[in-house]
Amino acid sequence: MALIDGICGLHPAVVAGLAFLFSVGFLLQILGCALYNNWWPMLTGLMYIMLPMPCLFFGSGDSGIFSSDGGDWEDAAKFLTGFSSVGSIAIPAILRHADLITAGAMWIEFIAFFVLLATVVIFQRVSQEDNYSYY
Length: 135
Fold this sequence. Notes:
Layout (H helix, E strand, L loop, with lengths): L1 H4 L6 H23 L8 H8 L2 H6 L13 H26 L5 H26 L7
Family: Belongs to the OB-RGRP/VPS55 family.
Membrane topology: Multi-pass membrane protein
Subcellular location: Membrane
């Protein structure tokens, strides 16, 4: 229990809920490929890997992604993160337009994106609130 309490000071139920949401998003990502026996939609997985990189390299971590604080490098990091998130939506749409994937796979990929996005937004909001902290 002490190990879980140390993760950003979040309540263990919040950590479990976020882990469940992340697992559902990842499962949907894989199901979008496996159900239609076409692994082209896994290209969005590359965008999910690239998504946090600008904030890791240029962002400071003191301010969240929703704050207006920060300098030019943090603004550039937020822009590149937004660009990558739009790419996560655009890749399945482009693949569908090129008839490389079916409409069902595209919609499952969209749902997976929004579940993973909700996970990140909830984590960002909850980690900034003091209500969930034990300290």
